[in-house]
Write a structure and sequence with these properties.
With 124 residues, the chain is mainly β. The chain is built from no helices and eleven strands. Strands 2, 4, 5, 6, 9, 10 and 11 form a seven-stranded mixed β-sheet that branches. Strands 1-3-8-7 form a four-stranded antiparallel β-sheet, with no helix packed on it. It is globular and about 40 Å long.
Length: 124
């Protein structure tokens, strides 16, 4: 099992930036792909993006492409989500997730381990 802990959420004005972090511990060798998802209480959990831990290939949802960037620091076992040009519709609880799958799945049920989430609120 992999333990995940997100941090870095907060309140930001529209157009601003935030960087979320996700500390990874436990059976880290089993997580081939890491993903970020988000959930507004009124909506279903939504895929944001994913990164393949080995190699660093990334894939993003159309709604965040060009504004969000996923990266990882292998030495620190930490995943990042850099969010720029934030919009009020980006307001949600953001979760990081891990899967042993090599393919960068957009489906939440294909991820095995989840963090507790961190709130991001973008004011207009």
């Amino acid at each position: 099992q992999v333990q995940l802990a997100e941090s870095g959420g907060g309140l930001v004005q529209a157009g601003g930036s935030l960087r979320l972090s996700c500390a990874v511990s436990g059976r880290t060798f089993s997580r081939n792909t890491m993903g970020w998802f988000r959930q507004d209480p009124a909506k279903e959990r939504e895929f944001v993006g994913a990164i393949r831990w080995i190699g660093g290939s990334t894939y993003y949802a159309d709604s965040v492409k060009g504004r969000f960037t996923i990266s990882r620091d292998n030495a620190k076992n930490t995943l990042y989500l850099q969010m720029n040009s934030l919009k009020p519709e980006d307001t949600a609880v953001y979760y990081c997730a891990a899967t042993a799958r090599v393919s960068m799945s957009t489906v939440q049920f294909q991820y095995d381990d989840w963090g507790q989430g961190t709130q991001v609120t973008v004011s207009s």
